[in-house]
Amino acid sequence: MGTLTANEPRLAEYCDHKLPTSCRLTSTPLCCACADNRNHSFTYSVYVDGVGLVQRGTRWQSYCWFCKTFWTNRLAGFPAEQSRIPHFPDQTDFIQRWYDFHRGYKLVESADGGSPETVPVVGIEPLCEAAPGELPPMTSAEHLAPEQSSLSDLLSQLRSNDASDSQPTASLAQQLDDLLAEADEEGSDADTTAGQAPSQSDFSITQRDSVPPLPTYGQISSSAAAQQRVVSLSIARDTSDIERRLEEARSQLEAAQREREEAAMSLENAESTVQARRERFRRLEREQRRQQTFARIFGTREEIEQQGEAYESPIGGMFSRAFDRYRRAEEARMNPPTAADDDDNNSMSQDTAIAELWSNMDPLGSSALPRSGPNGDSIVPYRLPSTHDYADEAAWMNQLTENSTAMRRQLVYLRHNAEYHLGRTARWRELTQGDSVPYADPSAVDGGPMSLIERERRVRDVIAQGRTRVEAAQRMLQSMDSLHHRPAERIPQRQYGLDIDDDRPEPKTDEEMTVVMCCQICYTQLADSAVLPCGHLAMCVYCADQVVPVREDDKTRVRGHCKCPVCRKTVKKRVRVYVT
After folding, report:
1. Bias category Polar residues: which stretches (predicted)?
2. How distant, in Å, are the alpha carbons of 77, 149, 161, 186 from that of 154?
3. Can you tell me the distance from the alpha carbon of 155 to that of 141, in angstroms, rounded to the nearest whole number?
4. Cα dihedral: 45, 49, 52, 58 (round 10)
5. Rounded to an integer, what distance in angstroms lies between the CA atom of residue 541 and that of residue 528?
6. Domain-by-domain residue ranges, the chain?
7. Is the whole-model pTM more than 0.85?
8. Tens digits of per-residue pLDDT, 258-298?
9. Tens digits of residue pLDDT in 337-349
10. CA–CA dist 465, 462 (Å, integer)
11. What is the pLDDT of residue 297?
12. Torsion angle of alpha carbons 443, 445, 451, 453, nearest 10°?
């Protein structure tokens, strides 16, 4: 691994760590550490395979690979829980030296106070081959000294931390008092020095004292301890703030859980109430149906009170009506109708049937009615219409077919009626020729043999009239059948060809015959797959494979339950359409 940004220019919006860390965040000018806005903590969670999340991680473990390597190298040997990157430990010196390597030179102030001099900075190996957080090795002691001083600073800070932990620390108020006392002493010393006249020796001393002395190890330790105390106080404040917020979050969580439990209990109570009321409603509904059934069978209390003794329940009325029907049937069986009444009824029914038969022939005109010929046969003349319109002729033939069907039904009725009448007459003749006459009319018995003969004559006349009418209807039906089966040459033959004069519409224009054949799903392919039975051609074969899949053994049978994307009807088959 090397420094990928060794040859890249430094932009104004970049942070100080962007190029030294080779950060891979290309969408922001900040590095991972500067872009991290999380609160600092002593521990960070990290996932350990087989164990889970544990508090053993560092703040920079989730940074990009180069930023992670940079901070790992820069904080090697420094406690991670005491770091506050990117501000503490301070990396200004390292960054300044890195930019010296990046530029290839550094500016050094001249001894005579003139313009700064440019000193080339070149390492043994190129900067691009150095790992993030490290500098190329050099033989110059000028660049090794700052690195050693930074290491000594870190070690002194660590030793001061240990010393501060072992020795009792003063309170904040006591420290403020000590600082105020030191400030007063310095002020009094300055006043005393100002009141005295400066001498040559004093001038030399003053000139010597104007150069700031180098800090001693004790001063460095005390400053590091003060800085560490400030950091510890800020950490304590952060810790107390975190604990306070944690308590607030815990209380809010407990309140939300209580509200959830109360809502669950309310919902359970409401559900039980709904179940109870639903059960009560069903019970009342069953009771209402039971009351309605009881009232439908036995009646209501109001009806019983209104009718009093004359009240009859619905079920009782049902049995009463059934008994009345049974009684009337027994009376009809004990008192059968006479033969004269039967003859009158049969003649009336036959006259009604014949009238209906003739009325069905009215639409054909008066010329279609039967006429008696010279030998007494019925003749049905036929007259062609004045204009040979095949459409009117077809309508006439349809009407003729319907009339013939109605006549067939009437003829069947007349035939069955005549057979019934003949059978009844024969049975009556057998009964009258016997020794006893059961169910005989008393008036006929009292009249003697002449009345029986007269009645038999009337029966024969009625039978003859019915037979004559049946034969006339049969002849008329035969004539209509002959009219129905007309010669084949009179039926117009359908003509074929493209130049015949048929009901073909006018030719369509090019715009009307232009059809868009694009797929209605993807709109990028031709629609060549149709679905049956609706017949919509709206999909290409690629979309059809997704919407209407087919079986492997039969490419036309649909696999599963599919619907047409146009009309949403069930699809049974899918076919491929080829347009020529």
Report:
1. 195-209
2. 9, 9, 11, 31
3. 21
4. -10
5. 6
6. 18-138, 337-486, 513-580
7. no
8. 999 999 999 999 999 999 999 999 999 999 999 888 888 88
9. 665 555 555 556 5
10. 5
11. 86
12. 150
549 phi/psi in degrees, rounded to 5: -70, 150
Exposure string over 292-316, b if 16+ CB within 10 A, otherwise e: eeeeeeebeeeeeeeeeeeeeeeee
Give dist(CA 482, CA 380) in Å, integer.
Answer: 11
> Which is it for the CA torsion 328, 333, 336, 342, positive or negative?
positive
513-580 folds as Herpes Virus-1 (3.30.40)
Calculate the average pLDDT of the chain: 73
- Give the whole-angstrom CA distance, residue 444 versus residue 463: 21
Asked if 483 and 399 touch (Cβ cutoff 8 Å), the reply is: no
Q: What is the pLDDT of residues 165-211, one digit of tens each?
A: 444 445 556 766 777 777 777 666 555 554 444 444 443 434 434 44
- Name the maximum alpha-carbon separation found in the chain: 193
- 425-434 CB contacts, 8 Å cutoff, 24+ apart: 425/459, 425/463, 428/339, 429/456
Supply the angle between the helices 141-166 and 92-103 in degrees, to the nearest 10.
170
Pairwise CA distance, residues 266 & 5, whole Å = 64
Q: pLDDT digits over 54-86, tens only?
A: 988 899 998 998 999 999 999 888 888 888 988
Q: Look at residues 26, 3, 38, 31 and name the one whose alpha carbon lies nearest to residue 15.
A: 31
